[in-house]
């Protein structure tokens, strides 16, 4: 089936929708991370024991990751049944609603233990939403992209994620300037309330995007799969395991954005909230440029080598970054933060949407990406809680946290080394067997 004329030019539209939608979606997700490290221990938990309050607050950050595998099963199923576009719209609206509700919650001082319970419920909704966002946006851009530029176009999804994190950081830089009384009473709520505008803007951007030619052709010829999960586990179980292992690389992001922020602003180090938020802002700004560059390189030399640079390099540079925080030298923290998160981590972060998505065929691609990544991301989300425990009662054992982070980079390395290289495989042949000689249609077995 030929691609209809009206679909011509959609790659750029799909990439733009993925970037903006992911930026808006992950703005919501990342303002929670900043608040969990800086605000929520004092607002929703018993601040008479700061260490325990911080631990519990960081645990609520991980709750969304625990909900994500469940959301991935649901959203992955319907994404492969009804299309990528509908899931992209649904996830955006759900994230906007749940984030707005967090800004409306009563505090512990007002309703007692009910406050953290309500916080966790809203966080679960955020997790369900995030479960389908990156998988649907990545599938949409991959299936619209020219075969020789899939890495570049799909990287816009993660570029949007970093953009959302940058916006969230800048917003918290503004509210962090408020006196503590105003910050803890109403100031922290403003970024969450702004999610209404986020959801509305994202909806109008995404509603005019066309469904992908690959999905439309699949539905018109062979038809959609009734039970994508069954087909996925029967034909792609090894790739699902690779994606789960590969998704553990996200631990680098959660340790950098949440635990390191809490550690640096603790009494033992004494960095100010604003100065550390600026480290994240500059690192994300560099990542916005680095991600498409790494992705473009993967279109030339392959997904595996670029991904391995990011995974191995992150294990090393995160150790250096946490060491820099322990020294209290802001210049070192800033430079190594930019190198670790803005440059090195961006290699793996920019290439995984194409690397993972190319492992699966069109009929189960969204399910494979959603389920595989969200199980791995669930571990990454709770990496922050584990790090808080590993750091000891005073939260200063940064070297143990660095070793823990490095250990979580090992499974992604193994996953990449055992995966097939797919950057030269035509889009219609992705997920077929054998792939070694899949440069022509004749190589596909009947």
From TrEMBL:
Domain of life: Bacteria
Location(s), subcellular: Cell membrane
Signal peptide: none
Alphabetical UniProt keywords: Cell membrane, Membrane, Transmembrane, Transmembrane helix, Transport
Bilayer topology term: Multi-pass membrane protein
Keyword Transmembrane helix applies: yes
Family matches, as PROSITE patterns: MFS
Transmembrane segments: 26-45, 51-75, 87-108, 186-205, 243-264, 276-294, 306-324, 330-348, 369-392, 398-419
Major facilitator superfamily (MFS) profile domain span: 14-423
Protein name: MFS transporter
């Amino acid at each position: 089936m030929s691609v209809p004329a009206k679909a011509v030019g959609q790659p750029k539209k799909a990439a733009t929708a993925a970037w903006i939608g992911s930026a808006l979606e992950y703005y919501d997700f990342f303002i929670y991370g900043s608040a969990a490290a800086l605000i929520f221990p004092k607002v929703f938990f018993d601040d008479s024991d700061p260490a325990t309050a911080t631990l519990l607050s960081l645990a609520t950050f991980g709750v969304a990751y625990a909900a994500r595998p469940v959301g991935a099963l649901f959203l992955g199923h319907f994404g492969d049944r009804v299309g990528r576009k509908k899931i992209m719209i649904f996830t955006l609206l759900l994230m906007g609603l749940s984030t707005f509700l967090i800004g409306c919650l009563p505090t512990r001082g007002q309703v007692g233990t009910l406050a953290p319970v309500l916080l966790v419920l809203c966080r679960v909704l955020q997790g369900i939403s995030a479960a389908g966002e990156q998988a649907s946006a990545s599938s949409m851009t991959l299936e619209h992209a020219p075969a020789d530029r899939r890495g570049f176009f799909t990287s816009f999804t993660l570029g949007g994620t970093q953009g959302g994190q940058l916006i969230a950081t800048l917003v918290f830089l503004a509210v962090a300037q408020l006196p503590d009384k105003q910050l803890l009473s109403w100031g922290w709520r403003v970024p969450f309330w702004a999610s209404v505008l986020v959801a509305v803007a994202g909806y109008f951007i995404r509603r005019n995007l066309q469904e992908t030619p690959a999905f439309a052709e699949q539905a018109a010829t062979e038809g959609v799969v009734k039970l994508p999960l069954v087909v996925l586990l029967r034909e792609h179980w090894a790739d699902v395991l690779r994606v789960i292992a590969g998704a553990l690389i996200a631990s680098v992001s959660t340790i950098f954005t949440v635990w390191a922020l809490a550690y640096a602003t603790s009494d033992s180090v004494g960095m100010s909230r604003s100065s550390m938020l600026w480290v994240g802002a500059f690192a994300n700004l560099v990542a916005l440029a680095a991600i498409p560059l790494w992705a473009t390189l993967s279109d030339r030399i392959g997904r595996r080598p670029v991904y391995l640079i990011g995974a191995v390099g992150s294990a090393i540079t995160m150790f250096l970054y946490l060491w820099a925080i322990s020294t209290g030298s802001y210049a070192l923290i800033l430079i190594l933060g930019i190198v670790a998160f803005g440059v090195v981590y961006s290699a793996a972060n920019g290439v995984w949407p194409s690397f993972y998505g190319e492992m699966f065929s069109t009929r189960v691609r969204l399910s494979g990406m959603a389920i595989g990544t969200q199980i791995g991301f669930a571990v990454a989300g709770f990496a922050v809680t584990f790090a808080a425990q590993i750091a000891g009662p005073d939260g200063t054992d940064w070297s143990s946290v660095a070793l823990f982070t490095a250990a979580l980079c090992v499974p992604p390395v193994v996953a990449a080394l055992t995966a097939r290289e797919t950057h030269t495989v035509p889009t219609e042949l992705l997920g077929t067997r054998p792939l070694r000689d899949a440069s022509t249609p004749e190589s596909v077995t009947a």
